[in-house]
Amino acid sequence: MEQFVVPNGNRRHFLVEANDASGIALYSGENNVDLAGTPVSVQIIMTPLFDSLPPVFSGTKTATYPGGGDFPPIHIAWEPAVDNFTPPESMVYFYYIYPYDSEGSPTAADIIQDEFRQEPSIVGETSIYLTTYSYPFDCDHDYWVIIKARDQEGNVSTNIDMIGPLGNPDGC
Ligand SMILES: [Ca+2]
User: Which structural domain, as residue segments, surrounds residue 104?
Assistant: First the structure.
């Protein structure tokens, strides 16, 4: 407990910041209290000034082939990510798509590489359609996908759940 002597008066303003070792404020809170000569307790709720927590993105992800049209799609859907600050409608989703030509399945580390990263600007949506128009699927590979969520501060979800194997949506 800290004790301070403050002159009496209405709406005395108390501001508290919690800094890191280099003096950068990480948390802040404030409150106003009327002082009339007797000790009072001041409750100050601290809230983080920076968001360093990634979204939690563990929802079920499904891939279906609804068919139809000149570019029949693969439809990938997911449960929305949950974040400490960013609301669902502002969550950004992107994905990695990895062409794999061997038996079994690749590892998540195989899939999560910059060269396979796709940034289709999915904001607040919880599904995407992939077609041979949006990605150069061929008939020699199976395709594996990892969807990621990113909050407004740039923190990326840590999930590594793989969706696959996906075939060419044209059906080879
Ligand atoms: Ca966050």
Answer: 61-166
Q: Give dist(CA 167, CA 172) in Å, integer.
A: 8
* Straight-line distance from the first to the last Cα atom of the chain, in angstroms, rounded to the nearest whole number: 71
Domain total for the chain? 2
| Spatial contact of 117 and 96, defined as CB atoms under 8 Å apart | yes
pTM exceeds 0.85: no
- Ion ligand 1 residues within 5 Å by Cβ: 51, 53, 83-85, 151, 155
Q: Are residues 36 and 113 in the same domain?
A: no
53 belongs to a structural domain: no
| Ligand 1 center from residue 43 Cα (angstroms) | 25
CA of 123 to the centre of ligand 1 (A): 15
Domain with 162 in it: what CATH number? 2.60.40
Between CA 9 and CA 18, with CA 13 as vertex, the angle to 5 degrees is 150
* pLDDT tens per residue across all 172 residues of the chain: 888 899 999 999 999 998 888 777 788 999 999 999 999 999 999 988 888 889 999 888 999 988 877 778 999 999 999 998 899 999 999 999 999 998 889 999 999 999 999 999 899 999 999 998 889 999 899 999 999 999 999 999 999 999 999 988 887 7
